[in-house]
Predict the 3D structure of the following.
Amino acid sequence: MTLKEIEAFYWTAVLSNFSLAAAKLHITQSSLSKRVAELEASVGVPLFERSSKKVQLTDSGARLLPIARQFLDLADSMQAEAVATTRLSGECKFGISELIALTWLPGLVNSVRQRHPGLKLQPYVDLARGLERRVVRGELDFAVAPGPAESSALVSEKIAGVEFTWIGAPSRISPGTVIAASDLPRYPLITMTEGSGLTRAFEKWANEQGMPPQRTVACNSLMGIVGLTIADVGISFLPARFVQPWLDRGVLVAIRSVPPLPTLDYCFIHRQDDSRTVVRELKQYVHEASSATGWSLPAPFI
């Protein structure tokens, strides 16, 4: 006998209708009848009266009905236990950049906590290169940062491409100004400090344009760069969606360069030899959380 046969017998008896039972189990009525007949053959006794137009249990069927319910309850318990065992527990230490901490980290934490309440999340915020080193050493389970990672021991899977824009104070430059890459060295540049994926991407772009070195002010905080740019210490380049609130207020203006800044890939970074379930599961949650916000600042930050 099979669980499907017991299920067919039970619901036919409870609903007193072959058609309704078949519909509940999403099978045809002929398939339902076949399963009931196979169960009867297995137990060696008829379970339903065949002489009646109504669906009526035999004495044997009536005695076996409670046992059938017990079988189905056990099956439900097994399924619930199996689902429970897939819930993650313990600790998950992961690295993120400041941009992620300010945009979609709250959504990620909420989603994981709802599905895996026994999993303790321990985020660590740092620049990309520092996060990569910690993943290589096994201090972090994974990281989400500008990539790809430099180490051959790591796998980098793209999560999203983030668009960047030049920004400046309106007292320095007019809205909609277009600047050739060759003219950018005339302006003081505010950048992230060494080890940042943003800085590495810009240096690569600048080298491709043949730009000479320029005056720079280093800052290890995106919010700090926003403040320095509003104060007209120099121009800077930041994620377009991230700086939109300050552009809307008019305290910053967007600047276009020719050629434009490249899109920066943010990646889910983990060790090549790490195939644990927690890493696979969290990667899916990272995809969902990063897609939900569009990399914009949530209302409380604006």
User: Anything to note?
Assistant: Residues 59 and 173 are 91 Å apart (CA to CA).
